[in-house]
Design brief:
about 1250 residues; alpha+beta; 5 domains; six-stranded mixed β-sheet; 41 helices; 29 strands; globular; GrpII_Intron_Splice-Mob/Def; RT_dom
Amino acid sequence: MALLHNRFSVLQVSDECLTDEVVLAQAWKKAQSYIRSTNSYADNFELDRSTISLASNLNVWKKELSSKNINLTPLRLVPSPKTTEWLFNDTTSGYQNWEPKDGITSPLRPLAHVEIKEQTFFTALMMCFADIVETEQGDTAANLSTVHDKKVVNYGNRLYCQYDENDNACFPWGNTTLYSKYFTDYQRFLDRPDYFSRKVLLSKSPDEKVFQVSFDISKFYDCIDRTKLTQKLTALALQIPEEKRTTLTKLLSEFVSWAWKEGDEELYQDLCQKDSENLPLGVPQGLVAGGFLANVYLLDFDKALHNVIGNLVQSKHRVVDYCRYVDDVRMVIVSKESKQTVQDDLVSYFNKQLEPLGLELNDTKTSVDFFRAKRSGISSKLKRIQSKVSGPISDREIDEQLGHLEGLISLADHMKSHQKSNDSNPLSLVEGQNHDVRGDTLVRFAANKIHKLLKEKRSFYAQNIDTNNIPIAGSWDFLQERLARKLIGCWTKDPSLSVLLKKGVELFPDICIVRPIIEQLKDVHSRDDKKQVHVAEYCLCELFRHASTLIHGRESWSFPAHADRSGMLEYLQLLANDVIDDESKFSLNVREQARFFLLVRNDSPLDTLNKEDKNFNFISKLLKGFRNIANDISKEDFEINVLLAYQFARDPQPVIRSVSCFLEKISKKKGEKTSSLTSTSLQPICETLAVQSFTLFHELISYSSNIDMQWVLHPNVKALIDKTCLYQNALGGDLESDEHGIALLSILKRADNPFSQENAVIHLLIKALKQYDFIQPLDVSKTKVICDNWSKIQGLKTELDFVGAIKSDPRPLFPIPKWVEGNHIALYNVGVFVRTCLLGQLDWSSSRSFKQRGNTFTGLNTSHTKRLLGMMHSPESIGGESAAMSSWLSGLLFYLLQWPGMKSKGTEFKSIVDISTLLDVLNKRLDEQKNMYCKLSQMPGYVEEVDLGWNKSKKSLHVVMVQSLMPLKADFTKYGLTLEHPKYRAKHRKHVASVAELILHKVHSQTTANEKRTDDIDLIVWPELAVHSDDTDILKRLSDKTGAIIFTGLNFIKQKGINGPNNVAKWIIPNKTANGRSFIERLQGKQHMMKDEKGQIQPWRPYQLFVELKHPAFPLEKGFTLTGSICFDSTDIKLSADLKYKSDAYLVSALNQDVSTFDSMIDALYYHMYQHVILVNCGEFGGSVAKAPYKEKYDKLITHVHGKEQVSISSFEMNMFDFRSIGKSYRSNKQTKTRPAGFNNV
């Protein structure tokens, strides 16, 4: 029985689905995310405003779609440059003009700015058609040997879908991902012609030739006939009765007549018109759903061409294959005719097929080539580079690939200057390459990969610093500058390739680079040629937007040491002020981007108010802390502007002052019939601010109360303060038993909140479920709990109960969504209660913030409404890396708080349909956690189940022990406990990076010597205190490259809300998902301090983490389980006794001078625990060792590293079945010792 309503299981183009608020919310979410990442002219300000006003927008949009009148906001023309060669031409004055070749500017591309409402409407329509259309097109991941049977021909603009065994597509519409990955689908498209060409070579007759044909559909999007498209969409919806799809009918009717903004026709004629055509009324280029709609338009065309495969065209050319990527068509033809005959016949045939659709081929982009089996295309080179750079690579390999990528840029230049000859003389083709990828695609690929590789190269380096701790430029810095200049130089040859401009400036953000760019763009902008003016404006928009969203907020270490980012940004700010100061000189697009950039930089014209955008003026005043701002704004605009200003502000205090003064002013203004805000607006404004940003609301109340402002004393505001429990403080002192009970919220607010741990919260929840039905949310501020021994609550044997009746909250500040119905209501409220307990705050939809306010602006991309449709439940998102919970609890929360469009993960929780069945699951979990509790060492154990994608034959783990040399013991005295000294940080990071690279080299060397081995590593163990927490990015890249789990000691760290500093180790666990690889990052604490640590380092070990590796051959059995300790903790015999029945391999990270004592300890541990024990010591002292309870001496000692003061990398195979009761056929056949007395391998 599903918790969600059946209407959410499969979307249809019915009125019910198209007007459903949750469908519209997901459509908005997908659209705005896609626009931010893809549209170069995105109006980020509009998107941020829509985030905050989402709830009210959804209500308005639902009503409009349900009404008889749907009014689409006119499209706004955004002229965008097409590929055009530009040169520096000499003039009589001696100055070189930067201008198009021959002085002729190509017509610009007519892109469209589409408002977020319309984007949402058509994304919702796309979501409802997705399963039908994507099933029709087939799975692009299908093996090339099966694509003809599966009828797969189109690879462009395909939605991200999952396919079942019957090839039915399922579009996970509750996910953020919209279109499938570009490079993956495009590479398959490029590989396909070669595959079928090679295949047909074996069967063709000697007098036949194999041709690869490439076509381009001219002005594809612009020439789509909207009426015909709507007819095709309507035909796909015929299974829905006509009376139940009136919304679709109205929306498509409006689509047919969707007009451009007044004045755009003239703009089109000036800038985009090629001949005498009118402003196109096809599919707007800029509509998120545009690619999908274009595919629908060609569904029948693709089907017809697929049916031609294996048959003759024009009675003489056999079609071997046909495939398409958007407007790019590829065919493989076998014919006895000449190349020119093949081209003429196929162009004629294709144009005849396209004619009914109002489309035609672009003659200038048609090519026909003889296929030569030994000549690989450029696409194969891209594929090799992509494979090399897909994960982190060594520094040497990075340099090699950077050389290849620079070569691609040069090749693109060569392709421009040497157009392909039509000569079919074999001798003329001796040197020719197979240019199966366009030049502009090449340089975009190269720019993105150069940027990626330089970022990776940076992770293996640390800048040296001078005596004033200022970074000194080195080889990496100058390399990055050189490549930045290379990219910008390439951009000057074709300004439409704005990615080169953006990446170049991002790599080296310096005024010496940007000044000549801006001067040239100003010069171009001052010319009489309107096309050139708009090319300059397009590039200015790109610079402003990129500076706002990326360059502004990046960490300084990611830029070359000699780059003056601050100077460059100030230079752009001056330009932005000039742009908005004289509105007549620049288009609306440039002005929007300039205003947004100034807001991000907390800058404004100050004395010059912008007449065009009232909200920009208001936010600017808030950022400057104005005490007196005109009260001529609507309630909604005020709320949105305040939230945006708070997000933009680098220093929030001026915003707090300004908003407080404004609220004070309206609190004194009476009257109902007025256009300005009054005291009646105070309570709803404050409630909105509290719900959207509780931190902001808290700061406003604290500031205003301290200076005796009167608005906080307003009865409605006081009632809201009570509702938010702002003044209900955390319980002070030690937690002690109180027979009268303690308010639950007072416990939850404590830094050591016991209910932030999984064990205690499950215990509490079971008690609550036995006394309360959860039809209404539980009020944690008024409900009291009692415990007979708080110090032992995680052991699950204390008496925990509620005092008196559990209080409900009939009107919570953070309500559950409207789409929760029936039995799901109580279960959803349970999920709310659990998250409230774990987070220790009333806003259960939020996540804890573990980052400090900085310069980064990523967009105001969250709100309470949006979070309900995409809450993160991972331990890291709820409690950070130190979260005392497992992914089991995350899975339960995902199930209870599931949102429409997402499929529940796994089957573990599907039995839960009501409170009774939930109790059954919780009681079972409670028993499991009791068994995992470490009784002697008195701490809970939490298991992370991990699936590393092994095959069923996997027997052993490939383990690498890393004996790094830094830090030395003396370094903590010289540079401080946390090793934060800038000089040391640079040196230490270099050391970690070089050791990581050494691991890659060693593994690669072993692979070349042993063909049975692969580059994959399963487990890498580093010493205690080996890596600074800021340098774990290097280890994540190492994990990503090798696929390994990493267990490493971190430098002493300070944790928020925890008495420190602490000595911890960190697990980095690769986690493959449908959207790529992410990482599980969790900490393992240390309880027992060494002599040097006592008095300086605080014990912290609230739990023991176990990593269970699930094996595909034994899915129902307990997986091979790893656990670890830090140095001196491993000497605790209570701990080893607790662990020996729970783990299968014990890892110890150490920085230990007494090597002989630890050798003896390992000798005792591996037999006492009857499992593999691995101790990795620092290189200063050596003595790293791995042992296991095998019978023979040479088997017991798996590896041992001798010698001091040296870096050492050693690796070995660790069989996962030798000491377990399962998998007898998987064992190594080494003889094992008799189990110790009383040992029971449960």
